[in-house]
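Quick log. Single chain, no ligands specified.
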Amino acid sequence: MKLFWEQSELELYFTLNTEEKKLLAKRTDTNKLGCAVLMKFVQYDRKFPTKKNEIPHLLIKYIAEQLDLSHELFKNYSFNLNSGEYRKQRAIIRRFYNIRKWNRKYVKNISKFIYQSVLPQKMEVKEIQNEILNFLYKNSIEPPSHKYLGRMIGSILNSWENAFFERIYSVLSSSRPSDNIAAFWGKMNLHYL
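-> predicted structure:
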């Protein structure tokens, strides 16, 4: 997420609506601000922040103003990823926005999507990552950690490349030397993978 925002951007992307404010009503001031910041961060960035310093100061200030709170309260917000309160707030946010928690069972669907819709047109890791994040967002699934996502992409690329080279080998081993190059590529049928 970028660090600097125009006022019009803050208003467009980070204004709390009535339902969001109702959800925050019964919390302490510190947790109210922390939860509101997480809500708007997730809504914009499609994922939860993993570090407190990922959240732009301008965003914290803008949300605090909407809640008539001091932005300094965010310094006291417990950002321990393993704390019960933080996990509880994440669960509330997921439920509120209908976001499904990441589960390894989604890997098969993601791999199928990447094989059929992305490869071989896009082979750059960043492009594949963006396609996966878009897929997760469209399907209301919280993305895995950045580290896990990287390993998943590596595994997808590795299996796709292995299948690709096996297909080349099978076509070459069944080709006669007299086959022309156009026939070879016709037999490859790259979208078969």
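The mean pLDDT is 86.
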